[in-house]
């Protein structure tokens, strides 16, 4: 029987696992979950953006949304605003929003009508675009926690978020917390981990181990020798210069992430209530570190950056050949890494931890079967995430550097994505193009990116019944946008009210 579970490594991934498993086993007193965190290894703490799925996890855990905002410097997130991902010589300064709202209005896809009429895609298909442009909040102070008028996620301080999850796991689910350095493992004749060797507490016996040790993957990678599969031939960015930027004056907090393209990558800019998180992501094969630092100086301000601590984060893009081996499963950065362009780090950790909690084996007899199914699903999810991130680069028409030219080379584009892009030159994407529920990024996500970047799908001939329905729906989108603008208040105002009054508990 599997009863004694170790989660090795804290940070966001480790505490997400502890909460997902703790919630799943809360009525089963025989289970004991122990999170072991090294007192000497700092967490990466970069991921500060999320997608709406995190709301459902936090609600399930019983975490107060008011506490999230007040303890983690959180702000609301409607979208990612992609800036200058197209050629400025052709399009001038350009940008688009990847929104969280469904662009299909009651199942009706307006994309075919938009291809005929043009304009900004997000504004055409979703009233949320108008809400974002006006920097409005996604809900009212009278709206209950985790409920919404339009879909939203969060920006937050990753370390403070891990602390919030820590408190919830230990108080609500009786997760045991142990500070120790895991130095080695003991395995039985079948290769299953039986003990974790620690510097402070000696040998500790466990039935199941979750590796949340970050890039190092010290258990699944170093000890169990599961190889790493690089994706550097597809995604070229391999370095980030990250910095926390204090506000010099009263901030105007945009309710979206900024992702600004440059000659060899892009810049993230995330507004928290206490500071900004800025990261200069680049390919070291296409830009020298000195030049990258100079460009970061230009973005943040030379005098401002001189007073700040800039962290250089090497990014090894790729994943483990499998994520579950014997009685050890990797979650978080120990699984692999892809640049944080679409808030992928926390998304994949939450997705994996939730899946693990749903399929957790009862005993060793079913372990191999469960592990095989988990690996199949997660490999599919990871590979589709890689496809989606590559999409942003390979459909860009920027020509100002080798980086952008190289990203359009067919050899760098996964065959699965090439096939879809070839199909979508003649047909608007449909639900049937995304046949698995483990896609992670689905039809809606692709529509916003493809047509935000003006992908050249051939204009379809419109059936008269579709055209009439679509034109009516397009008018309804604009009417809804006006109604939401009248109903919702400013993002900044709602944050102030949450701090003063809190949100209503469900």
From TrEMBL:
Superkingdom in the source lineage: Bacteria
Q: State the UniProt keywords alphabetically.
A: FAD, Flavoprotein, Nucleotide-binding
Molecular function in Gene Ontology: monooxygenase activity; nucleotide binding
Q: Provide the binding site for FAD.
A: 10-13, 182, 333
Q: Does the keyword Cytoplasm apply?
A: no
- List, alphabetically, the Pfam families matched: Trp_halogenase (PF04820)
The residues the record assigns to binding 7-chloro-L-tryptophan are: 77
Keyword Coiled coil carried by entry: no
Annotated L-tryptophan binding lies at: 342, 346
Q: What is this protein called?
A: Tryptophan halogenase
- Which residues does UniProt call coiled coil? none
Catalytic residues? 77
């Amino acid at each position: 029987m599997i009863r004694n579970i170790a989660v090795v490594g804290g940070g966001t991934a480790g505490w997400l696992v502890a909460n997902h498993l703790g919630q799943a086993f809360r009525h089963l007193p025989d289970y004991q979950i122990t999170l072991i965190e090294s007192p000497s290894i700092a967490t990466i703490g970069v991921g500060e953006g999320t997608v709406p799925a995190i709301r459902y996890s936090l609600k399930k855990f019983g975490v107060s949304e008011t506490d999230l905002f007040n303890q983690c410097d959180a702000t609301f997130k409607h979208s990612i605003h992609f800036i200058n991902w197209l050629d400025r010589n052709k399009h001038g300064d350009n940008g688009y929003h990847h929104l969280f709202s469904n662009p299909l209005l009651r199942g009706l896809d307006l994309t075919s009508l938009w291809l005929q009429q043009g304009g900004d895609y997000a504004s055409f298909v979703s009233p949320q675009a108008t809400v974002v442009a006006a920097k409005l909040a996604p809900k009212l102070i009278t709206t209950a926690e985790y409920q919404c008028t339009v879909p939203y996620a969060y920006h937050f301080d990753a370390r403070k978020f891990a602390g919030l999850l820590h408190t919830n796991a230990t108080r609500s689910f009786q997760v045991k917390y142990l500070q120790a350095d895991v130095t080695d493992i003991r395995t039985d004749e079948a290769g299953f981990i039986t003990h974790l060797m620690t510097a402070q507490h000696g040998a500790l016996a466990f039935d199941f181990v979750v590796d949340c040790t970050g890039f190092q993957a010290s258990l699944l990678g170093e000890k169990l020798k599961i190889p790493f599969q690089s994706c550097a031939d597809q995604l070229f960015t391999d370095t980030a210069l990250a910095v926390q930027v204090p506000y010099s004056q009263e901030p105007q907090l945009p309710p979206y992430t900024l992702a600004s393209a440059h000659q060899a990558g892009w810049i993230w800019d995330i507004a928290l209530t206490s500071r900004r998180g800025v990261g200069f992501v680049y390919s070291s094969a296409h830009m020298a570190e000195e030049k990258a630092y100079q460009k970061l100086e230009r973005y943040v301000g030379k005098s401002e950056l001189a007073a700040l601590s800039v962290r250089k984060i090497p990014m090894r893009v790729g994943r483990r050949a499998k994520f579950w081996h014997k009685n050890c499963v990797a979650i978080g950065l120990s699984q692999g890494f892809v640049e944080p362009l679409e808030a992928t780090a926390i998304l994949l950790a939450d997705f994996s931890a939730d899946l693990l909690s749903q399929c957790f084996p009862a005993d060793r007899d079913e372990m191999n079967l469960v592990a095989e199914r988990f690996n199949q699903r997660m490999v599919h999810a990871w590979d589709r995430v890689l496809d989606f991130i590559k999409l942003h680069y390979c459909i860009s028409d920027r020509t100002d550097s080798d980086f952008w030219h190289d990203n359009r080379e067919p050899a760098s584009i996964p065959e699965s994505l090439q096939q879809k892009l070839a199909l979508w030159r003649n047909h608007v994407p449909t639900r049937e193009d995304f046949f698995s529920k483990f896609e992670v990024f689905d039809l809606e996500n692709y529509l916003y990116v493809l047509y935000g970047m003006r992908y050249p799908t051939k204009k379809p001939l419109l059936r008269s019944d579709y055209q009439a329905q679509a034109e009516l729906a397009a008018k309804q989108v604009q009417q809804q946008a006006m109604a939401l603008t009248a109903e919702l208040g400013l993002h900044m105002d709602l944050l102030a009210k949450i701090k003063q009054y809190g949100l209503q508990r469900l």
